[in-house]
Design brief:
The structure is a single chain. 23% of the residues lie in helices and 27% in strands. It is α/β, with parallel strands linked by helices. Helix 2 runs antiparallel to helix 5.
């Protein structure tokens, strides 16, 4: 797939920025003469921050007046970094005008505030990481993740077991930014109190997630000794399956839901089988490594 094909089909230029001997994560797109850098460090133009996980380069944009993020994402970043987000903070489902380019935001439910950005007039949807695609619109060109892009990644969340172990007072390992807040809210809604670290508590407070202290403990995975890590990642020997991503089936279902002609996987490592399966459906699919323009 050539960027020339994309440019001709959508009047948009996809490129990667050089950085030393490599490239800036993840990619950039030029629309109507305006550059948008997706989950990357600041650059000329605007930066779209899909969510507050560090591998999506949110914190490096804290002082970037042209960084765009949801209000929840900016609150998490501020709580983690200790400094105010100076960019453009929007509500989910808002319409945004960035340099004359109109964008609509949609929730993806990956973590609190995770956002997809839709360039409606160009038919381009950039999802970031996704847990629930039900609110995403149809598009012609879908740019999405593939964290669990292998047929071996088939799973269902086991939230009932989370409740059982929490009520028993066991340790539950959660990533402090994102999953911790999801599980904190889930436990609070089910009347289960818990103890946790100062960092997790600080982020919960920024998102106005209230909870009572109880016997269960929410801890970063590395701190868990006598409990379970909540993850779909199989390298955890003692785990309860709880993922903030779509599994392999979910990725395919999302693509069918959005019904694009083109699909770009820009985060994660999609298997050859996934790419081939998307191509067999009549869509043009490619990966970030196949972008052949570097600026």
């Amino acid at each position: 797939m050539s960027v020339i094909d994309i440019a001709e089909a959508f009047n948009a230029l996809i490129f990667r920025r050089r950085y030393g001997s490599g490239f800036k994560p993840h990619f950039s797109i030029r629309i109507e003469g305006v550059d948008f850098h997706i989950d990357s460090s600041p650059g000329k133009g605007y930066n779209l921050i899909t969510h507050a996980h560090s591998d999506h380069f949110g914190q490096s944009n804290m002082k970037n007046f042209k960084a765009i993020a949801s209000q929840e994402t900016s609150a998490i970043l501020s709580a983690v970094s200790g400094e105010s987000f100076r960019g453009i903070a929007h509500k989910l489902n808002d319409r945004i005008d960035a340099g004359g380019v109109r964008i609509r935001s949609y929730p993806t439910f990956h973590i609190f505030g995770s956002t997809a950005y839709h360039f409606n007039s160009h038919g381009i949807l950039i999802t970031g990481d996704v847990k629930d695609f039900s609110k995403l619109p149809a598009c012609e060109f879908l740019v999405t993740e593939a964290t669990y892009g292998s047929p071996s990644h088939i799973f269902e969340d086991d939230l009932e077991r989370v409740l059982v172990e929490a009520k028993a007072g066991n340790e539950l390992g959660v990533y402090p930014v994102g999953k911790a807040q999801r599980i904190a809210k889930f436990l609070a809604e089910n009347g289960v109190g818990f103890k946790t670290t100062e960092k997790i508590r600080r982020i919960c407070n920024a998102l106005e997630i209230e909870f009572d202290h109880g016997e269960a403990e929410l801890l970063p995975p590395k701190m868990v000794r006598n409990g379970y890590v909540l993850s779909a990642q199989k390298f955890y020997k003692r785990r309860i399956t709880v993922s903030d991503h779509l599994d392999y089936r979910g990725l395919i279902e999302m693509i069918e839901h959005c019904n694009p002609d083109y699909v770009l996987f820009y985060h994660g490592k999609p298997s050859r089988k996934l790419v081939d399966e998307i191509r067999k459906s009549g869509r043009k699919a490619f990966t970030l490594s196949e972008i052949d323009l570097y600026l």
